[in-house]
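Bench notes, afternoon.
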Amino acid sequence: MYHQKSNFNTESNEQIGGGPLILDGGLATYLEYLYRNKKIKNNKNCQKIEGKIEVKKDFQQFQWTHLWSSQFLVDDSRRDLIREVHLTYFRAGADVGLSCSYQACIEGFQKTGYSIDDAKALMRKSIQILVEARDQFYDEYIINELKSGESRNTTTSTSPFTSFPNRIKPLIALSLGPYGAILADGSEYTGIYPPDITDSDLYEFHLSRLRVYESDFERIDFVAFETIPSSREASIICQILKDERFSLKRKGVDDKDKGGKDLKEIKINEKNDNEAGNDDPTIINNSSIFPQCWISFSCRDSTYVSSGEMISTCIRLLAAEPKIWGVGVNCTKPQHINGLLRTIRETLDQARAMEKWIVCYPDAGCKWDTTRKEWLEGSGIGEEEFGKLARQWVEIGSRGSKEEGGKEKKRLLIGGCCKTTPKYVESIRREVFKDGE
């Protein structure tokens, strides 16, 4: 069944009582867990792991490549696993799901032997899988709501929906990593790219990936430019969004969809199809509905993004950009988040950009062994502590952003990145909405 976008209104945020949105967790590292965790219990035909996901034995031999999680898109059995992981995050409490496309690009699939057309088709599969998982979850949720009635909140229920009633239909976010991610050399955490990579190269890289997903814009709620290491790359993304031949224009009140969600469309300024020519690669069909965008930075500490620039400088750059819905940080150690959020909140308030949402999804704090290419056992923080920290992050990010009447607007998107499993998402939701807040 084809479902339209969620009816959640990101402008008013009325459907969850003014509270934040919950993002999912570390998709790629959770898939990694499925393959590599030594505690998997053997079965004759399958193996069961956390979350009751069944995994075929041959999956254990999976080897990571430059495509990272995107290589799971290449065959039906692996795509089924992606779908099941998305579904598990939604059941755990995620309001927003990120697609399995962070490191996906045409060049990457070509290196693996796929044609350009096949590469594009595989990249678009990431959205199809996420939408299917979201729709399956929401159908289950609605059925559960109809059946549960007053018994929904009883302590004896084992339903995955019991703890979190009043859910919105989850939103779809297209995950697009930085240029450094496709290099697979860790440069998304330094911002140091090869000297021959020009601004034009970065512009074409990000624009070409957007073009691949054009036919999916109608069912994508957000484009997430994530783990961006520098103001340079963020500026180039903004330039793409405001380029006069690729400009986004918010439709008027009369052009809202049935659920009240503002639509955005791509409009070709000062050029018509005959003037521009049908082969102009910078022009996207002007009938396409363009999603809202966020940009989140990877940070080295509580003050600086990965390139060494101050987070305040980067946020100030984006605060005045009308095409950017949200700003923030991801794939950053949890101990740095309080300081970063204070600076982001202060910078947005000083720029009078209180309407911007803050996005915040740090990793679990685990350490990476660069020699052995694996996560160090026992490093990082557990899901309960992470959830309690998330409650602090909501308070810090909301502070100073007031509605008329003095009520704080909680325009925050809170979730997890690398090594945060569905249990982390469940903990985040439980703590953030504790006491019915």
